[in-house]
Write a structure and sequence with these properties.
The chain is mainly beta and about 400 residues long. It has a single domain, classed as TolB, C-terminal domain (Neuraminidase, 6 Propeller), CATH 2.120.10. It is about 0% helix and about 40% strand. It has one helix and 34 strands. Strands 1-34-33-32 form a four-stranded antiparallel beta sheet, with no helix packed on it. The longest helix has 8 residues. It is globular and about 55 Å long. The N terminus is likely disordered.
């Protein structure tokens, strides 16, 4: 859905021929096998660490054809074992957890979204897909799924439909996420209520919400829109008003110009000083996407700065930075591009500050399909500075990989 629309919008083409493996600082942790091997396929989200060396994530497809939730664990022999925690059935438990990362609560339960339910059942969601919020709990040595909320329970789906991203918690234990039906979206809150959960929509936009949410220590929520057609893309902030409601403000508007970004698709990241960093899939000097920074001023206004404009494959650079960014302890910025690079299968890049205003890019990895292709999900770093992520395609079975890169 989104990938066809956005890649055609920016004329980004990808080839899928197998190429020789590259040496360097990357290792494939796991090759997803797809339906034929009873495995997941096409992971599209970032990984989540449990702090004990294990990683969790979702695949869009595979299993029974509707996606999975998986765990990757070191096997003690310099390899990794995969465990399927849940296989979606395409029914009431949901299907296609498109960009949904896995979120932990304090008790070790897992939370996420799945975009479509009631596939082929003739129900109200059979054509467009309503979607669910799910929880996985460890019960008796196995994982059990509970659906916390099913979308499109209200007339006209005013409660939202088609959640494609992961979730964030606030300090009170409320969950926040986005829905995206292709012609508009919502930001929703799920609050524990007795033995269940209560949903309320806290923000409505006529634009697509491909990016996930970010929440700061004060409970302010940040997100981004991608317009249908040519209106500008925006970054917005939602702030609690103290009376159970929310105030909304647009804090940045991208002008779709050569000196600005377009289509803010990556989930934004906050630094320790409260500055907001993100990516736009298009725009910039070469119209191949940007990395931007938003700085919060003293009078409450935000100022925007483009840190880097991607040059595209013709200049041996990446293009279409769909994922958000990650920081290391020194403040260096890491991310991925879906297209471009030496083989046209995407890149993993580092941006290093040179002086106070400029950044220099270093390509750490040119994906070559053998080691993965189309890295849509954001990266995560461990305490040693190693980077971990997924690619949607490529690898031994051509169904995507989980990888590690050491800068």
């Amino acid at each position: 859905m989104k990938r066809i629309h956005i890649m055609c919008l920016f004329l980004c083409l990808t080839t899928f021929a197998t190429r020789p493996a590259q040496a360097a600082h990357e290792s494939v942790l796991y090759n997803f096998g797809g339906d034929d091997l009873g495995d997941g396929s096409q992971p599209n989200s970032r990984l989540t660490s449990d702090g004990a060396g294990n990683f969790y994530g979702t695949t869009q497809y595979g299993g029974l054809g509707y996606g999975t939730v998986f765990e990757l664990s070191p096997n003690g022999k310099k390899g990794w074992n995969e465990t399927i925690l849940h296989t979606f059935t395409g029914g009431a438990d949901g299907a296609v957890p498109e960009q949904s990362w896995v979120t932990f609560d304090g008790a070790g339960n897992l939370y996420g979204t799945a975009a479509v339910d009631n596939i082929g059942s003739g129900g109200p969601c059979a054509n467009s897909g309503c979607g669910v919020v799910w929880e996985l709990s460890l019960v008796g040595g196995g994982w059990t799924e509970t659906v916390l909320y099913t979308f499109c329970q209200q007339d006209g789906c005013t409660d939202g439909s088609n959640p494609i991203n992961g979730l964030v918690f606030d300090t009170a234990g409320n969950l926040y996420g986005t829905t995206n039906n292709g012609t508009g979206g919502t930001v929703f809150e799920l609050s524990p209520s007795g033995s269940g959960w209560t949903e309320q929509v806290i923000y409505v936009t006529p634009y697509n919400l491909y990016a996930g949410l970010t929440i700061d220590a004060s409970g302010n929520i940040f997100g981004a829109t991608v317009p249908v057609g040519f209106p500008p893309s925006t970054v917005f902030e939602l702030s609690p008003n103290g009376n159970g409601g929310w105030n909304s403000a647009v804090i940045a508007t991208f002008k779709n110009a050569t000196k600005d970004g377009a289509a803010a698709a990556g989930t934004a990241v906050l630094d320790a000083a409260g500055n907001l960093y993100g990516t736009t899939a298009g725009g910039g000097i070469y119209n191949n996407g940007t990395v931007f920074k938003l700085t919060h001023g003293k009078k409450g206004k935000w100022s925007e700065k483009i840190l880097y404009s991607f040059k595209g494959a013709t200049k041996k650079d990446g293009s279409l930075p769909w994922a958000g960014i990650a920081f290391d302890a020194a403040g260096n910025i890491y991310g991925t591009t879906v297209n471009g690079g030496k083989y046209g299968e995407g890149t993993l890049y580092e941006l290093v500050a040179v002086g106070k205003r400029a950044y220099k890019e270093k390509i750490l990895r040119n994906f070559n399909y053998t080691d993965g292709a189309l890295p849509y999900g954001s990266l995560i770093l461990d305490s040693a500075g190693n980077l971990y992520g997924t690619t949607e395609l490529g690898g031994e079975y051509e169904q995507g990989v989980a990888f590690e890169v050491t800068p």
